[in-house]
Each structure stands twice: as C-alpha cells, then as structure tokens.
Amino acid sequence: MALEMALRPALARSEFELHYQPRVDLRTMRVVGLEALLRWNSADLGRVSPGEFIGIAEETGLIVPIGRWVLEEACGQTRRLIERQGRAIRVSVNVSARQLAQAGFVDEVRDVLARTGLPAACLELELTESALIEDMARTAAMLDELRVLGVKLAVDDFGTGYSGLAYLRRLPIDILKLDRSFVLQDDGRISAFDFVKAFVDMAHALRLSVVAEGVETADVLEFLRAADCDEVQGYLMARPMPLDALEAWLDAAT
Ligand code: G
Ligand code: G
Ligand code: MN
Ligand code: NA
After folding, report:
1. Does the structure's ipTM exceed the value 0.90?
2. What's the pTM value of the predicted model, to 2 decimals?
3. Which domains does the chain have, with CATH numbers?
4. Cα–Cα 20 to 30 A to 144, which of 36, 95, 100, 184?
C-alpha cells in the first residue's frame, strides 16, 4: 500500500530513470544493442527495484503511463546516442502484458518513433511468453502491425514458462532471449551442451536470433559461443548503467 501510494505520483515527480545494459555480438564482441531497464528513486522510499514495483504497477494499471514514458525516454535517448556514436545501436524495451493489451499500443509505438526520430529497426520490444499467448489471435494481428512498422520483436525470459513452442510459428518473432536459468542449472552448473545447442539450432532454423542473458563468467561465454548463440548480455560484459556512464564505457571499449 505504501508502495502504491508512492508509485502514483512518481512519474509526475520525475522519479524514474533508465539504465542501459549493453548487448554484445558474440562473434565480433561489438556492442550491438542496449536493454533499457527502469529505475525508481522514490522521494519517500529511496531506491526501489523493479522486482518490487513492476508487479504493483501492472496490477494497478500504472504500468501503462509508466511504460509509455519508458518507451519515449528510451527511443529519444537512443536516437541521440546513435547520433553521438555515429553508428546504429538497437534499444530493447520491456513491455508488460497490460501495455500490449491496450487498444492504442501500436499507434503509440508509431507516434513515439515519429516524435523521437529513432529508426524503427533500432527499436526492439521484449515481450514475455505469457503476454504473447494471452490472446493469440489479437496478439498475432498486433505483432504483424508492429513488424510492418519495422520494429523487432523479442521473447524475453525464454525457457522459464511452460507455453510450448507453437506460438513461435504463429507470431512474427525475431529474437529469443534465453533466460539465465536456461544455461545455468539451480546448482550453478552449466546445462548440458546438447540441450542448449539443440535450442539454438532450432531457433536458427526458424530464422530467430538467440540472445543469452545473465552471462557472468568466461566459461559461460565460451559455452554459448560453442553453442552458436548470436548475442550475449550480462555482468561479464557490463552491468546496467546510467546513460552517461554507458557512454563513457562505450567510448573506452572502442
Ligand atoms: O532491472 P532489473 O534487473 O532489476 O529488472 C528486474 C525485472 O524488471 C526484469 O524482469 C525486467 O524485465 C523488469 N523491468 C525492468 N525495466 C522494465 C520496464 O521498463 N518495463 C517493464 N514492464 N519491466 C521492466
Ligand atoms: O526479465 P529481464 O530479462 O527483462 O530482466 C533482466 C534482469 O537481469 C535485470 O534485472 C538485470 O539487471 C539482470 N541482469 C543483467 N545481467 C545479469 C547477470 O549477468 N546476472 C544476473 N544475475 N542478472 C543480470
Ligand atoms: Mn528483458
Ligand atoms: Na529475461
């Protein structure tokens, strides 16, 4: 309750900020993308992690205006970053089921791209399996419209649900983001190679590219390289950072 009371005025009080975590091409080790991750510094509660407030934002519907702000901020900041860096960089934005269920979501994405000037191909939307299968017919129509705009579509936390794979045939998905638990077992050991490799091969056969999340060690990086994974993201490369720190990091890395 205290959290919800503090969350309601947070947007108007400019208490949100985006941090960005680099995503790296596993073959060239160049940064090809960034994931925008929401941070809340509450005047009343101090720093609150998304794990604590995203659920409440979803239940209360506050995720809709907050998500709109995230999309606009991520697109605007990335557009300016691309200008300064002089090369294309993709930004991925997490989208909740609740946002996807909004009637005007596609228009909102189209408007934000027009307002910020970010090329559509530089925007990726991360959707969870549960959001995708909630209302398949409607979702499929919507994702087709987003695809026509040129936006990239990713399945986030892939391998954590039990939704099967049929939806991958019906929906115009471009990217699978393998959850950390897909590669690391509960005891911290790396999963069976053949298991991970088979999934990567299947994804490639379906023309999907594969991003592994939560890469923390060189062992895991080499394992993913051997499994033919396309991109990696994790503390081994970099933590999520505020924009200015990210730019300094990018300048140092190249
Ligand atoms: O940033 P962190 O590593 O703590 O993220 C925790 C969770 O919060 C992740 O599941 C992530 O997808 C989610 N999250 C972070 N930022 C956003 C956002 O802008 N929108 C939504 N819907 N979820 C987010
Ligand atoms: O659910 P989603 O994939 O959107 O959330 C990404 C979350 O993973 C963020 O909370 C981010 O801070 C976290 N994260 C990013 N890199 C790593 C990592 O190497 N290890 C772990 N444990 N978490 C990570
Ligand atoms: Mn994500
Ligand atoms: Na994830």
Report:
1. yes
2. 0.96
3. 2-249 (3.20.20.450)
4. 36
